[in-house]
Amino acid sequence: MVYGILAYLLWGLFPAFFPLLEPANAVEILSHRIIWAAVLMALVLSATKGWAELRRASRATWLRMGAAGLLIAANWLIYIVAVNSGHVADAALGYFINPLVSVLLGVFILGERLRRFQLIAVLLAGVAVLWLTVIGGHPPVLALGLALSFGVYGLLKKQISVSGAAGLAAETLVLTPLALGYLGWLEGTGRGTAFDHGPGHLGLLMLSGVITVIPLLLFARATKAITLSAVGMLQYLTPTMQMLWALFVVQEHISPQRWVGFLLIWVAVAIFITDATRHRARRSPATPPRDPSAG
Questions:
Q1: Domain assignment of residue 198, given as a range
Q2: What three-state secondary structure class fits 128?
Q3: Would 136 be classed as within a structural domain?
Q4: Domain for residue 289, yes or no?
Q5: Separation of alpha carbons 214 and 161, rounded Å
Q6: Is the CB of residue 85 less than 8 Å from the CB of residue 194?
Q7: Where are the alpha helices (DSSP H) in 49-115?
Q8: For every one of its 295 residues, what pLDDT tens digit does the chain have, with 9 covering 90 and above?
Q9: Helices 237-248 and 2-12, packing angle to 10 deg
């Protein structure tokens, strides 16, 4: 739980960081995130002698790690576009929806069971998304893209047998050739920003790799230790921080109709968390686990 909370608190601070990387475009920022994260993870594996774990990984594991890399890259790109185009509230909505996506994936893919009030919460959140789609005239594309990409990423992380550090290293290393190719093309055509806006700008682009790695390592540790549903519900820390940023820092306008949708989602969250808290309280005085050797 502690690892998950720390990861989501760090992600909640991201809207303050990515506007600092302008005038780099979203794909250039994404490419730097991938490359510098890969460099950092290569150093981590070298220091911890973790390369052997990747050498032993099966082909199926590598395919899952590659797919996870593509999903998290898509999530990063959508998020950068949302934040740097002044749609922080849309990003927050995506991360409000994502925990419910994680719950549904846990139910239908991993066989996790929902209690009655959890099911009510999921259905209510579905109504909220439908409402936001109707009043907007089109689906909340950025929000749904963030929710689905990160939800499926979390599902894959549950199914990858390597450690969090090795998995993250593989995800970034698989994407590094594409990122290097894109940055090479940008610099070759004079469209890159890394070396044209002073050492401070380059330093911030390099720092994007560090701030990418730390919460993802914490998230990977959390997904190994707690259920996918619990991972999803912890995530509400991040969009709450993002929504406060959208309202009070960048002062985005949110229509009353959209507030209705957000309110429905918050009610769904409250129902889910209340049910989880009561269920945990009822189980807390339970007897110690039975010894399997006792037959």
A1: 1-282
A2: helix
A3: yes
A4: no
A5: 20
A6: no
A7: 51-56, 59-84, 88-108
A8: 788 888 888 988 888 899 999 999 999 999 999 999 999 999 999 998 889 999 999 999 999 999 999 999 999 999 999 988 888 888 888 887 887 788 888 888 888 788 888 889 888 888 887 887 777 667 788 988 999 998 899 889 888 888 888 998 999 999 999 999 999 999 999 999 999 889 999 999 999 999 989 998 888 788 777 776 677 667 777 887 888 888 888 888 888 888 888 888 888 878 877 887 787 777 655 444 444 333 3
A9: 20
Find out whether the peptide bond into 23 is cis, omega within 30 degrees of 0. Answer: yes
8 Å CB contact between 222 and 1: yes
Number of domains in the chain: 1
Other Cβ atoms closer than 10 A to 279: 13
- With CA atoms as reference, report the closest residue to 83 among 242, 265, 256: 242
CA angle, 165 as apex, 72 and 3 as ends, to 5°? Answer: 80
Which one-letter amino acid corresponds to residue 54? Answer: L
What are 166's two structure tokens?
Answer: 């090795």
Q: Is residue 106 part of a domain?
A: yes
Q: Where are the alpha helices (DSSP H) in the chain?
A: 2-12, 14-17, 26-48, 51-56, 59-84, 88-108, 116-136, 141-159, 164-188, 198-225, 228-234, 237-248, 256-283
Does the residue 270 lie in any domain?
Answer: yes
Cβ-Cβ contacts under 8 Å for 280 (sequence gap 6 or more): none
Q: Are 147 and 273 in contact (CB under 8 A)?
A: no
Residue-wise burial string across 102-140, b where 16 or more C-beta atoms lie within 10 A, e elsewhere? bbbbbbeeeebebeeebbbbbebbbebbebbbeeeeeeb
- Distance (Å, whole) CA 31 – CA 272: 37
* DSSP character at residue 163: -
Alpha carbon distance 66, 78 (integer Å): 19
